[in-house]
Amino acid sequence: MNGKGYESNPILDKLPKHLIQYIKPQNYETYTPINQAVWRYVMRKNVAYLSKVAHKSYLEGLRKTGISIDNIPNMYGMNRILKDLGWAAVAVDGFIPPAAFMEFQAYNVLVIASDIRQLENIAYTPAPDIIHEGAGHAPIIGNPEYSAYLRRFGEIGCKAISSAKDFELYEAVRHLSIIKEARGTALEEIEKAEKHIEFLQENMGEPSEMALIRNLHWWTVEYGLIGTVKDPKIYGAGLLSSIGESQWCMTDEVKKLPYSLEAARTSFDITKPQPQLFVTPDFAFLSQVLEDFTNTMALRRGGLSGLQKLITSKELGTIELSTGLQVSGNFETLIEHDGKPIYFQTKGKSALAYREKELVGQDINQHETGFGSPIGRLKGINIPIEDMSPRDLKAYKIYEGEVVSLDFTGGINVTGKIVTGTRNLQGRIILITFENCKVTHNNKIIFESNNELYNMAIGEEIVSAYHGPADLKSFDLLDHTLSKVSINYDITNLNELESYYKLIRDFREGKNTIISRTKVFQEIQQKYPLDWLLPIEIYELAVKSADKALTDSIKIHLETIKQNQPNLGQLIDDGLELASTEIETTA
């Protein structure tokens, strides 16, 4: 352990601090016997069913990652096995911001919400939990092509530009996931939260890049099918971890569509089963569609629209100019001319970088209140400044000690005394520093320096715009406080029902074989007549020992529960069927 609550390794050691802030201890000892029983039921059901309908990588991945059917996976044990696949896993604080989630993937780190769904939500929960993350995502990364896609998706996805509405929706979904799994939450409160999400989803306006790429993530990583439309297999983690939806998605009620870029424009509702799914022919095709989507992003297109996206997002972002100079900050305003930006301005702390490394003397202390600069060509001069050789610069008097007046196309003028210039590794000038400088647009003053120096960015155009800073070290990105609402229980003080679950679990594992299963069942039947999962666990043991009297009694009891709670019928029937099925405990 490293004092941070998790066991590190060479992959996790590469994580930047702003991602480490989301990691929390797994606290394996807080999983209760009912938690373990929920895991075991879902995994037994999944493996029995998914062996027929999941992509072959699923069962192979369970073996590769060492995920047991009988026990909730321990993160430390998973990491020892995942490292051979080039990956690692960490426990995180439930839903984390989409950009952070994807950035973890870019570092080959699988984020796992270590909480586990309640028994009442055993079939499906909107909350990320260890069943969804550990048993859904982890096994498929054993496939090299899919693993490469997941990493690449993270690398690109964390650069997608968000909108303020994206964050509002994220907060609403996170809230729903917390209250739905918290014990004692009133049904009215859950319904209110679901309606709020529905309202937000219907009023998002033009989707941001993050919204679009989250759609791609949903229809592939979470709810993807692979193969042919007529004979698809499951690989999406949301389907692999949902014992209800993994069956329903294979029926004709769910429309199957060939996967394409159209998936980016297909929204989803996290609170409902999906009415349609997309089928990719193979994992390599996922990467092809991802590259096609990336070609539409400001990351590759830059320009006026990219700068406008950053301004709309109101979040920390970066533009890269054609010289390679990178400007990071909260972009506030721009001036355009003939469909091109000719001036930009950030607000608050900003920093300049080149090739993701901050330029010396161009940090947030130097640019504490913002950074603004013209971009484009000088009026009447065919050669852009960035392409000028030292001789060209001297000829145009863009030279140390010269007092100049530079007229840019579009009406921007910069006057002042040149102090120095900064060049990139190719020798092209990327920054010119002035003193006694004044910047105007059509004779209106934009900036005027007194004693401070003015740095003018050099670049004919914006070639890239993306979320986040160029150099992660330039900004303090530590703003996340771990939630205190995680669903942990004190197993040193088990309630009576939990104690019964532990008795049966210990019996099955050979730790305590002198108990009477019949007596335990009778006490459960009397004291906890609505509990259905423990009777199924006892039924499984009775089947193995050929105790017909006990199996018959349990079946009669479970029929009574089904009559009183029809919604449990399928779960109970499946549990009875599983009890007679031999399933390897390590898949």
UniProtKB/TrEMBL annotation:
It comes from the Bacteria. Belongs to the biopterin-dependent aromatic amino acid hydroxylase family. One of its GO terms (biological process) is aromatic amino acid metabolic process. NCBIfam families: PRK14056.1. This is Phenylalanine-4-hydroxylase. It holds the Pfam family Biopterin_H. GO terms for molecular function: iron ion binding; oxidoreductase activity, acting on paired donors, with incorporation or reduction of molecular oxygen, reduced pteridine as one donor, and incorporation of one atom of oxygen. Its cofactor is Fe(2+). Keywords: Iron, Metal-binding, Monooxygenase, Oxidoreductase. Fe cation binds at H132, H137, E222. The keyword tRNA processing does not apply. It comes from Maribacter arcticus. Transmembrane segments: none annotated. The lineage of its organism: Bacteria, Pseudomonadati, Bacteroidota, Flavobacteriia, Flavobacteriales. The keyword Ribonucleoprotein does not apply. Residues 1-343 form the Biopterin-dependent aromatic amino acid hydroxylase family profile domain.
